[in-house]
Amino acid sequence: MTQNPYVIDQMISAKAIAARVEALAREITAHFRGTDKLVVVGLLRGSFVFIADLVRELDLPVEVDFLEASSYGDATHSSREVRILKDLRGEIAGRDVLVVEDIVDTGFTLSHVLHLLRARGPKRLEVCALLDKPSRREVDIRATWTGFEIPDEFVVGYGIDFAQRNRNLPYIGKVRFLA
Ligand code: PRP
């Protein structure tokens, strides 16, 4: 695929992310204190860096699982279909569950995933999203914990891609097209 040339301007530094992840983990640990096990569910692929850092800061017994949903398929308007490409390996009935998402944009992905998981009867179901773009929201939904609210910019890094590239940047950057 050919791509117009672009540069990436740093928006949130690796240091700022690390500090925020630590603070989020403290709040999540306090919220779930006493749990026999917290099932931390990463939504693939974008959350893989965030979940790796977050779970290492949680002072709780944790199980890690993954779910993959595709949100940016063909449809671009509000009755957008979200497909589950990979389901959880484990059961979540009666469990404490934390869904970890890299970014909430229109909210379709999160809304669909929560609907699906709620139907399985978890004891508690909460969400931690690193980034939130409230100005893009089409579904009335919010994460329980949000790392950073950001404007409607095209962001990459720390797990987030642009055409499958730039997920490995240690910071969050803003894509700026040159042409
Ligand atoms: C991105 C992102 C969220 C979703 C947010 O995933 O990781 O899951 O879109 O968008 P929404 O709020 O408008 O639904 P994407 O489908 O691009 O897959 P990826 O995580 O594999 O990059």
Structural class: alpha/beta
According to DSSP, the number of beta strands is: 9
Any idea what the CATH architecture is? 3-Layer(aba) Sandwich
Sum up the overall morphology in one term.
globular
Q: Tell me about the biggest sheet? A: 6 strands, mixed
Rg, please?
16 Å
Ligands: 1-O-pyrophosphono-5-O-phosphono-alpha-D-ribofuranose
Strand order of the largest sheet: 4-3-2-5-6-7
How much of the sequence lies in strands comes to 25-35%
Mean pLDDT equals 94
| Poorly predicted tracts of residues | none
CATH topology: Rossmann fold
Question: Which bin fits the share of residues in helices?
Answer: 10-25%
CATH class: Alpha Beta
Number of helices: 3
InterPro entries: HGPRT (IPR050408), Hxn_phspho_trans (IPR005904), PRTase-like (IPR029057), PRTase_dom (IPR000836)
Keywords: Cytoplasm, Glycosyltransferase, Magnesium, Metal-binding, Nucleotide-binding, Purine salvage, Transferase
Organism: Gemmobacter aquatilis
Catalytic activity: IMP + diphosphate = hypoxanthine + 5-phospho-alpha-D-ribose 1-diphosphate; GMP + diphosphate = guanine + 5-phospho-alpha-D-ribose 1-diphosphate
